[in-house]
């Protein structure tokens, strides 16, 4: 079974901000590598949404580490994956919008 991925407004904004930063600061090659990492993560989540660990005490939220700098937080709802946010791992986890 393939789960549908639903983007929250926050996840879309986070993703767009990351892409803009990467292309401006690091160039197209790094941007393309990041997009491939995200797509690879999506492929795994769509087929095996429980592949990534639960986030701390949040029973229904999971954390997928995209790369050492960025993580993706999502929840499984019925047969859908709701993307909550992309998160810079260097930020304070207390500020997570979860």
Description:
By secondary structure, the protein is of the alpha+beta class. The chain has a five-stranded mixed sheet. A hairpin with a 2-residue loop joins strand 4 and strand 5 (80-88). The protein has helices at 9-25, 28-47, and strands spanning 4-7, 54-55, 58-65, 70-77, 80-88. It contains two helices and five strands. The protein has one domain (9-89): 2-Layer Sandwich (YaeB-like fold).
Strands, helices and their partners?
Layout: E1 4-7, H1 9-25, H2 28-47, E2 54-55, E3 58-65, E4 70-77, E5 80-88
Parallel strand pairs: 1-5
Antiparallel strand pairs: 2-3, 3-4, 4-5
What labels describe this entry?
98 residues; alpha+beta; YaeB-like fold; 5-stranded mixed β-sheet; 2 helices
Number of domains: 1
Fourth CATH level, the homologous superfamily:
RelE-like
CATH class: Alpha Beta
CATH architecture: 2-Layer Sandwich
The SSE order reads: EHHEEEE
| Total DSSP helices | 2
Give me the side-by-side strand order of the main sheet.
1-5-4-3-2
CATH topology: YaeB-like fold
Major sheet characteristics: 5 strands, mixed
Share of residues in helices: 25-40%
Low-confidence stretches: none
Q: What class would the helix/strand composition place it in?
A: alpha+beta
Radius of gyration: 13 Å
How many strand units? 5
Taken from the alpha-carbon principal axes, the silhouette is globular
Mean pLDDT: 96
Task: Note the beta-strand portion.
Answer: 25-35%
End-to-end Cα distance, whole Å, is 27 Å
């Amino acid at each position: 079974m393939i789960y549908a991925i639903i983007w929250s407004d926050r996840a879309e904004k986070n993703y767009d901000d990351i892409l803009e930063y990467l292309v401006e600061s690091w160039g197209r090659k790094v941007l393309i590598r990041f997009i491939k990492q995200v797509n690879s993560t999506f492929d795994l989540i769509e087929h095996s949404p429980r592949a990534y660990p639960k986030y701390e005490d949040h029973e229904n939220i999971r954390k997928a580490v995209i790369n050492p700098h960025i993580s993706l937080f999502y929840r499984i709802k019925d047969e859908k994956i709701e993307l909550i946010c992309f998160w810079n791992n260097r930020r304070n986890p207390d500020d997570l919008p979860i």
